[in-house]
Amino acid sequence: MKRKGRAFGWLGMLMIVMMLFVTACGSNSTGGKNSGTNSDQSEPSSSNDKNGRSDEKGTIKIGVLASLTGALEAYGKQTLKGFELGLDYATNGTMEVAGKKIEFVVEDTETKPDVAVQKATKLLDEGADFIVGSSSSGDTLAVLPLAEEYEKIMIVEPAVADSITGANWNKYIFRTARNSSQDAVAGAAAIAKEGVTIATLAPDSAFGRDGVAAFKTAAADLGAKVAVEEYAAPDSVDFTSNIQRIIDTKPDYLYVIWAGANPPWKQLSDMKVQEKGIKLSTGAPDIAALKTMQDAVGMEGFTVYHYTLPKNEVNDWLVEEHQKRFNGETPDLFTPGGMTAAIAIVEALKATNGDANADTLINTMEGMSFETPKGTMTFRPDDHQALQTLYAIKLEKKDGFDYPVPVFIRELSPEETAPPIQN
């Protein structure tokens, strides 16, 4: 839905009518130029009626927002690789659903909320049927109102702030990513129990503060107490003062929530936190960050994904195809999320027979279950959060890996990690 403009007078209306008449008489063209990564001008371009329904031979257009530069660049690129593979998997390589071609356009948010809004507006003005993204919770929160304004479905991946499906949610928002509360339940299950004291270290951002708030609640439910909360700037490279305050508090555990290219693990090791009797715990990060955690071998926590953990056909396909297409490289932490977002879109369109009308899609997607690299996910009708499996793990050294590997302890089921409804 385009933005509404100001009403204007009868003279303006008369001029537009005359212009339309002249244009109609002067041209017999019915086609238009397609946009997107897979455009083909020989095919008819997509056209939508006022309710957002694409024409029978049209094109489904998807706009993807990702951090391709900035602090979360690695996450954006992982998500994008997964999304491309997901479209291929879900369409059996045809890039079509219900007889319609699928096109997608990628825009770099630069990990800046104002840029994310600008890029999302551009994609929606150019006729995107879906928006997918973004890597940053701040970027995503800024874009959410546009989904409602344009009446288009937004698939949130991989941003995790609770408020996305909480206070800032609207009915057009569906999230395949897990949220902070799901992480918190998993993280608390690994270390929290009666009488345990815990410190937290997190970025001073929506992601960090939502994560800590959710973790405190989950830990308290298990009888533990968060004794100190430390927040550092997301682009910080010096955590000395934060770590020293944690050491001075003398907690049993330090639970770290972090995302980005500058994790605190080396400095935690340099300041000998574990040697002072403080055990470390976290959600195991991506492979680049795991390589900085050599001194954390033996640490117990949880993870969203490591390619060795899920045992299902979708993950087998993802690992094999990713290695085949990307020079032997294995899928990373956020790759399956991108794949899941693509699968969710295609499965929804299969169910609607290609109808991209938002109300039709909402009715279809609420309660929809679908297969992913992490097993079966289900969009909870109440807040459109995907309920999903996470993994309790222990970091261990393994032959063939140059980083501590998250080794399986047990699955944390979708029912076990279901977050509270907050919208």
Automatic annotation (TrEMBL):
Disordered: annotated segments: 30-55
Residue span(s) of domain Leucine-binding protein: 59-397
Family matches, as PROSITE patterns: PROKAR_LIPOPROTEIN
A Pfam family reported for this protein in Swiss-Prot or TrEMBL: Peripla_BP_6
Chain segments annotated as transmembrane: 7-24
Keywords: Membrane, Receptor, Signal, Transmembrane, Transmembrane helix
Gene3D superfamilies hit by this protein: 3.40.50.2300
UniProt feature, compositional bias: Low complexity: 30-39
Skewed-composition ranges (Polar residues): 40-49
Family statement: Belongs to the leucine-binding protein family.
UniProt protein name: Extracellular ligand-binding receptor
